[in-house]
Design goal:
heterodimer; A: alpha+beta; TATA-Binding Protein; disordered N terminus; B: alpha+beta; five-stranded antiparallel β-sheet; two-stranded antiparallel sheet
Chain lengths: 144, 175
Amino acid sequence: MLLLTLLVAQPAAADEMIEVSCTQPFSEAMMHLQSSITGAGYSVSRVQHVDMGLTAAGYATDKYRLVFFGKAKDILWAREKMPELLTLLPLKFIVYQDGENASVVTLDPATFAGIYPDPAAEHVFQRWSTDVRAIVEGVLACTE
Amino acid sequence: MKINILVMVLFLLQMFVPVTGLASTTGHTVDIQAATQHVSTQQGESYDTFIIAESPYGFAETVKQLKLAIVANNFRFIREQTVDYGFVSEAMSSDNEVILYFCNFALLDEALQLEKRVGVFLPCRITIIQEGDTVKMIALNPKRLKEALFPSLALGRMCETMHDVYQHVLDEAAL
């Protein structure tokens, strides 16, 4: 039986990070994440193999990937209304091997309000936050 | 009487001429205050959310100068992509916003030893945006991210370093 743990009690950054740790193999975690992202109506624009770059540069590392995702309409919205917010897009997950587990982590987009406290942006940050949590729940559901 | 009038004039000038929020970047003065969110914290520390510089060049030349500055600061240029890459068709893509990604693997390795979740900051990036005749180079301020989002993560010195890197790269690219 797979042991899945939703980590919400990290003392350092409990409110800022949304983090899931599961015992499924890394490749399956990646697959489930991407499937959950598209299932939530988002597109995966790129997967960056940070581990490969590090290894090529001579640094030993476990598997470590960045999964960039987003929606065209959000890019268009930011472009038109608040171009500085383009620096926050696309959104991303990090997925890394953590011992026997695969960890899936992202910054809670709701926290963007802390660095960009514009009322016009807050509902968008909240929507992203809700969607990101649904994506993470989707990852868990895939593995149960 | 004349002195009183002079004091009054100076006072009025002070009210209407912004003397804060102006950052001189190699001779190009950019009104950062107008373009950034400046938030005070309970601790009293506060940094601008964005590091912004206005380029003296056109868009393509700005991209070129940034790439040179990235390498000159011992970072490896990773890739250039439009902000909407992967979300719209190539025909619909806008060339007015481009992201430059870059990395220093030694620094990255060091950061990962401190905190695995540092990936939420990765990769280093500068966004170049054309607004009318103006080309802006924008980076998220690592000091602000640390202050607002990760006050207890062991990344303080790293964020200071990265802030300085961004500032140097933007300064050099605007030369």
